[in-house]
Design brief:
The chain has twelve helices and no strands. 31% of the residues are buried. It has 209 residues and is mainly α. The termini are far apart.
Length: 209
């Protein structure tokens, strides 16, 4: 064994003890207990066994640590409860500090919504409202193309122009910018020349590109 890894038997024993506590002594279970239970459940591939305990704990506690929300969201994803996973991811992202870790979690949420739930509209709305805060990882930035394609298809002029400004203001290599942005920018500029009311919200961003 390396580092601080526990032997499998010790982990199983600790897991069983915490799981029994969560079932029989609900009021005595702490956030730290649940975090450890979720971690051990993942290591031991006991996702389903932890699922009900997590659901019970979260239903009885309005305020929980972000780490617990993140692990509970992951547990729901691993058990195929995608709607619950998406809800917990959103709860986590409401309280998480922006940065690479939170951006990776946002990417996990987008994957669940788009690929497993068919909830692209929900994913798009989140990206439009809060996605700028969670683009600090490669996994999250991979959704830029999807977001802009969707914005163009929906004619969401403001959302598209805002994301284009963010991308073209970054230190992106010119060839990458050409491939990712220029087609959308050309389309947006042509649309904006019509001067329709729905274009107005995009103009402040276009003027800065």
């Amino acid at each position: 064994l390396s580092g601080n890894a526990q032997p499998a038997d010790d982990r199983t024993s600790a897991f069983d003890t915490l799981l029994t506590k969560s079932q029989r002594e609900t009021a005595a279970v702490t956030a730290e207990d649940m975090i450890q239970l979720l971690k051990l459940g993942k290591e031991l591939h006991r996702f389903q066994a932890v699922s009900m305990a997590a659901k019970m704990y979260l239903s009885n506690h309005q305020t929980v640590p972000p780490e617990l929300l993140k692990l509970a969201a992951e547990n729901a994803r691993l058990t195929g409860n995608f709607r619950i996973a998406a809800t917990r991811y959103k709860q986590y992202l409401k309280v998480a500090a922006p940065g690479p870790e939170a951006s990776d979690i946002a990417a996990d949420m987008y994957t669940v919504m788009i690929e497993y739930m068919g909830a692209g509209e929900d994913a798009f709305n989140f990206m439009e409202e809060s996605g700028d805060k969670f683009r600090d990882s490669i996994a999250a930035r991979k959704f830029d193309q999807w977001f802009m394609d969707t914005a163009q298809y929906q004619r969401s002029y403001s959302a598209l122009s805002k994301r284009l400004l963010a991308l073209m203001s970054s230190a992106m290599p010119l060839e990458q910018e050409r491939l990712l942005c220029w087609g959308h920018l050309d389309w947006l500029m042509k649309e904006a020349t019509a001067g329709r009311p729905e274009h107005v919200a995009a103009l402040p961003y276009l003027k800065q590109i």
